[in-house]
Design brief:
A nine-stranded parallel sheet has the order 33-32-30-27-23-22-21-35-34. It is α+β, with helices and mostly antiparallel strands. Bound molecules: alpha-D-glucopyranose.
Length: about 800
């Protein structure tokens, strides 16, 4: 916790700080249509309903102005529907159609309740909300940054905690202390590390199947104590600024995520190529080396859509330049690669080399766009290029300028930008970030680094995304970043930084990606194969078994490690990896449909089982397996020399992808998963859209589209979304979305392709239905009521070809009564 105001006039002896003072009696000073404003001593507190299931609480100490402006927030205008603000003797109730905030005035304590009478996010009766002033008690000194603040909530013994953004350790965060302060941690991330590169102070709580959420919006240092200090309490605190938090009533995880991503923004649809396989390494040092990598992929028939250039492409690590000796003709190289179906992504770091002979540095300096020392000089520290200046991304002019710099890369044909070292990382002392008293002049809204630290990566990514959108308005920006803050999903995808080629990290990536998804950041991935340390063929293959299900699928490694391209370890690994990458490529229509769902509702793409089965407490710790959408459950192996593992299958019928064997959940089953065949289960009656195997997304029109389906008594549905795969025509109606449903009885399997919504015409002539899991040949197949003859029955797979059509299509498969398979 902060123990310095950073201002000499307000020097505070350490011993006097950090005494928690709960707020006392509140008086109502204003009653609005959707909330109240209170005064408690010198503090102002506001409680407002923003939506039927969303409340905002603000605590502004020491006469600080009421202000909610925040770089995290995407939506500022809300309509809560009918709200009643009810005054009572010593309480105020703010009631919406779905929930109410109960505000007790003496002393001030808050509690929330849904329409079913469930209470959640209830202030601890004794401690409630309060301050930890740094100024000595009784002094009239006012902390210029705003005193540390905190709110204590009661924790029922049945309440469990998840989310909290990017973490090491397991999925469940009950009994933990969470620090939100972006950092470039030492390599070899272990469970003892707390904060990493991204901070999302968002909590998803589950109590006996019902979910609620809390987002504390403050870009300085934030801490959550999730029943670690006391099993009956959780607290949420900020080091400076104001205590602004949002409470989400749920009651499902999906409802919480939907509202949270309405507040902080949704993941835009990516360009389709971004869903393919990506290959990176620090570093492919010359144009010829990059060409050779591309050649290997194509010669070996290994799918790949993107290649990355790490820092070696630059001239002395000066951002937005090319090393003309190693890369004499960037545009020529990129065009050559594009002709083979590769997109090129280049890294950009925030540190701008201090060099009078370097135009980018001079421009930033002359326009006064860099961070300053406390005394007003340009702040310098050392990163890859040596001494650097750091753009003040809180200044909109600096963001515009930074965005514009990407012209140098885009003109050469670069397809996307990789923002790195944006915590920001500096090397002195190593590795660290900017000192808390560095000034961000902010173009007129000055703030100290301590107040805005967690925004640095977010705003660098935002500057990049906005720059790309301006420079190439007809293409969807592709921006990947290491650092960020809540709301990052609007600007960039995130990879989890410098992991290691360890089995422990194969495992760790599962809870890590699941908690990121539960925190609104759905487009995520780890470095497949591990960044630091040396991979082996077995480790790489197992990691690819998991990695092909990551929303972002990229193999990346450090310069001083064993090569780990898919062919690096020879056979049998290369063959397994080929088959797995082909499966990734085949899954693209399903993945893209999940991105569409995520874009509309905030639902994670790779999601924990508890997202879909919150009433099943066994899922809460099943964090070494995950769901991809609704239809697929994946249970990777994360140990060497192991071919078997236990898998938890939640309720319903599930089918093993490779063998077709049926399992009925809820059940723990033993999966055999030899190398190259990860344990994947398809949920019954959920048609899975698949492409033909291709080497990159634009190789040829994906014709036919296959629908893989395992029927079992009951019903299910998935959704299929398609569009041009780039650009914005889909926003003007050029998309195709349809529901794919299946209903199975003892006598019939009925598959329905609902009429397509939207005007896009997918480039195909045929759809192929692949029905597995039937014990015997069906008696008859009918398409839209008429007998169908274009079907075969081979190796227990029913294959029916139908003409592609935007209209509704209905396939009825009549089963042999005697088989009674359903
Ligand atoms: C950082 C990045 C890593 C990159 C390296 C060199 O460590 O996390 O991915 O390869 O810098 O640019």
């Amino acid at each position: 916790m902060r123990d310095d105001t950073h201002f000499r006039q307000f020097v505070v002896p350490r011993a006097t700080g950090h005494l928690y003072e709960p707020l006392g009696t509140a008086a109502v000073v204003e009653q609005g249509p959707a909330g109240v404003r209170l005064h408690v001593g010198a503090a102002t507190v506001e409680i407002a309903a923003l939506a039927p299931d969303l409340f905002r609480v603000g605590l502004f100490a020491d006469g600080r102005p009421v202000a909610y402006a925040s770089e995290a927030i995407a939506q500022t205008v809300w309509h809560a529907g009918p709200v009643a603000v009810e005054r009572q003797d010593s309480a105020v109730h703010v009631r919406t159609s779905a929930a109410r905030a109960l505000v007790q005035l003496d002393p001030l304590r808050l509690c929330f309740e849904d329409a079913a009478g469930r209470r959640f996010a209830e202030d601890d009766p004794e401690l409630g909300m309060g301050l930890l002033p740094l100024a000595p008690r009784g002094s009239r000194l006012v902390d210029p940054l705003g005193p540390p603040t905190r709110v204590y909530k009661r924790r029922p013994p049945t309440e469990r905690y998840f989310g909290c953004g990017e973490r090491t350790g397991g999925l469940e965060k009950t009994d933990s202390h969470q620090v939100f302060w972006n950092t470039d941690p030492p390599v070899e991330h272990t469970a003892s590390l707390n904060n990493l590169y991204v901070s999302i102070p968002f909590l998803l709580a589950l109590d006996r199947g019902a979910a609620w959420g809390l987002f504390l919006d403050n870009p300085g240092r934030v801490e959550f104590d999730l029943a670690r200090e006391h099993p009956g309490r959780a607290w949420f605190g900020a080091d400076c600024g104001d205590l602004v938090y949002y409470v989400f009533a749920g009651p499902t995880p999906a409802a919480v995520l939907d509202r949270y991503t309405e507040l902080t923004g949704r993941t835009p649809l990516p360009p389709l190529w971004a869903l393919g396989n990506h290959q990176s390494r620090w570093g492919y040092k010359t144009a010829d080396e990059v060409r050779a990598i591309a050649r290997e992929f194509r010669a070996r028939d290994l799918p790949c859509d993107a290649l990355y250039l790490d820092i070696d492409y630059m001239d002395g690590y000066r951002v937005f330049t090319w090393d003309r000796e190693r890369f004499p003709d960037p545009a020529g190289l990129i065009a050559e690669l594009a002709a083979q179906g590769f997109h090129v992504v280049t890294i950009v770091d925030p540190g701008v080399k201090v060099d009078e002979g370097y135009a980018v540095y001079r421009e930033g300096r002359d326009a006064d766009l860099y961070c300053k020392t406390f005394l007003g000089a340009e702040y310098h520290n050392v990163v890859w290029p040596g001494t650097c200046a750091f753009p003040d991304f809180t200044n909109p002019r600096a963001r515009d300028w930074w965005g514009e710099q990407h012209r140098a890369l885009l003109d050469a044909g670069v397809a996307g930008i990789w923002c790195d070292m944006d915590e920001p990382t500096v090397f002195i002392p190593t590795p660290a970030t900017l000192p808390p008293d560095v000034a961000h002049p902010g173009g007129g809204t000055p703030r100290l680094h301590a107040q805005v630290h967690n925004l640095y990566g977010l705003l660098m990514a935002r500057a990049t995304r906005e720059g790309l959108a301006r420079l190439r308005p007809d293409r969807r920006p592709f921006v990947i970043t290491r650092s960020g803050y809540a709301g990052l999903q609007r600007d960039a995808l995130h990879w989890t930084g410098d992991n290691s080629s360890w089995w422990e990290h194969v495992w760790m990536s599962m809870p890590q990606l699941q908690n990121l998804g539960l925190s609104g950041l759905a487009w995520v991935g780890t470095d497949i194969g591990g960044y630091a340390g040396h991979a082996t063929g077995e480790l790489l293959t197992r990691w690819v078994e998991l990695g092909i299900f990551q929303p972002f699928c990229r193999n990346h490694a450090a310069w001083n490690t064993r090569p780990q391209e898919p062919w690096a370890f020879g056979e049998p690994y290369e063959g397994h990896i080929r088959k797995l990458l082909q499966l990734r490529q085949r899954l693209i229509p399903y993945l893209y449909s999940l991105f569409d769902e995520c874009h509309r509702t905030g639902a994670p793409i790779l999601r924990p089982l508890l997202f879909a089965y919150p009433d099943d407490a066994t899922t809460y710790n099943a964090d070494d397996e995950f769901l991809l959408g609704d239809a697929l459950l994946v249970a990777p192996i994360a140990r060497p020399g192991v071919e078997h593992r236990v898998v938890y299958l939640p309720r319903g019928a599930w089918f093993h992808y490779w063998s077709g064997q049926r399992f009925d959940g809820p059940a723990h089953v033993l999966a055999r998963a030899p190398l190259g065949e990860p344990a994947i289960y398809l949920r019954a009656n959920h048609p899975l859209p698949l492409w033909p195997a291709m080497r990159h997304v634009a190789e040829r029109p994906p014709d036919p589209l296959s629908l893989l389906l395992f029927p079992a008594a009951g019903e299910g549905a998935t959704s299929l979304y398609e569009d041009a795969g780039d650009g914005y025509e889909h926003e003007r109606g050029a998309y195709a979305r349809r529901r794919l449903a299946c209903a199975t009885t003892a006598t019939t399997v009925t598959v329905t392709l609902d009429a397509q919504e939207g005007a896009y015409q997918p480039p195909r002539t045929q759809v192929e239905l692949l029905l597995r899991g039937l014990p015997t040949r069906p008696r008859a197949v009918r398409l839209d009521g008429a007998p169908a003859d274009a079907w075969t029955w081979d190796a227990a797979i029913l294959r029916l070809t139908l003409p592609a059509s935007p209209r509704a299509q209905r396939i009825a498969i009549e089963l042999d009564h005697s088989a009674n398979q359903a």
